[in-house]
Design goal:
With 278 residues, the chain is α+β, with helices and mostly antiparallel strands. Helix content is 27%, strand content 22%. 39% of the residues are buried.
């Protein structure tokens, strides 16, 4: 999350696109810096550890199409007595793998990425960018590398607006330049919209496939085909207590949809079908 001092290929196709499912609080690529210099792509090296545990340092323009979403963390998450932030692992329903985070804010953004239907893979801190600045070696380890279903990549740093120091803003800007040079998107994201966050937290408790009952899922798709309030539809599909875990799982999978940013999820939330079959 902080700015540092001091193979299998992916099919990359098409221009980067905005991640679906993200609302207010997810910032655009950082562009402001106190130093307006531009860095050519050949100025950057990348330090990474592949899925087999082998460490490399290569020019960015030569390794940009590596499957960094499968790479191991180049920097481990610190945990120690008295630490103010909380580190942990999120079970990613998208890939059935664990992804690290080192704050509640990072956890919430990992959760939102897991919910995002455009995301197919995600890695925590798999690359370290290296460049020269005024004769000194500088490095920065972005928080997340995201692969989208169309093959494009998004590099993400998580930092609230009020915690960005000048040296951080410079690192984010230079990282954005490196990403743009190889067709990646860079995003610095901050606090999430509170309503969306709380709704995703609730639905994430039902993201595991064990919450899916195929027969009840079919009933729910039929009941909500024309739209209905959440609890009314659950009762029409059967015993609501038995049906709700599958209903929430389908909302997480976006097989069923409701506006998660408009208001807290409730019995009256209007639910409709809207995705692929479970």
């Amino acid at each position: 999350m902080s700015a540092d001092r001091g193979s299998t290929k992916s099919d990359i196709a098409g221009p980067p696109r905005r991640l679906r499912g993200w609302r207010s609080g997810h910032g655009p690529a950082t562009t402001a810096t106190s130093d307006k210099r531009l860095y050519a792509p050949e100025r950057f090296d990348v330090n990474f550890i592949d899925s087999g545990g082998r460490e490399f340092q290569e020019p960015l323009i030569q390794c940009w199409n590596q499957s960094f979403e499968a790479a191991l963390p180049i920097r481990s998450l610190a945990s120690y007595r008295g630490k103010k932030s909380f580190s942990g692992l999120w079970w990613l329903a998208t890939t059935s793998a664990h992804v690290g985070y080192q704050s509640w804010l990072e956890r919430d953004h990992v959760m939102a990425l897991d919910f995002d239907a455009a995301v197919v893979a995600l890695a925590s801190r798999p690359i370290r960018l290296i460049w020269q600045h005024d004769g000194e070696t500088r490095t920065h380890t972005p928080d997340y590398f995201v692969r989208l279903g169309d093959g494009t990549a998004v590099v993400i740093d998580v930092r609230p607006d009020d915690r960005i120091e000048p040296e951080d803003a410079e690192a984010f800007d230079i990282t954005a330049q490196a990403c743009e040079a190889v067709g990646w998107t860079f995003r610095r994201v901050g606090e999430m919209d509170g309503v969306l966050r709380e709704n995703l937290r609730w639905l994430s408790g039902y993201r595991h496939p064990r919450c899916l009952h195929p027969a009840r899922a079919a009933d729910l798709r039929r009941v909500f085909a024309g739209g209905a309030p959440l609890m009314e539809g659950a009762r029409r599909a059967g015993d609501s207590i038995a049906v709700l875990p599958t209903l929430f799982h389908l909302l997480w999978r976006q097989v069923l949809r409701t506006d998660l940013a408009a208001a807290p999820l409730s019995a009256g939330s209007v639910v409709r079908t809207g995705g692929e079959e479970a």
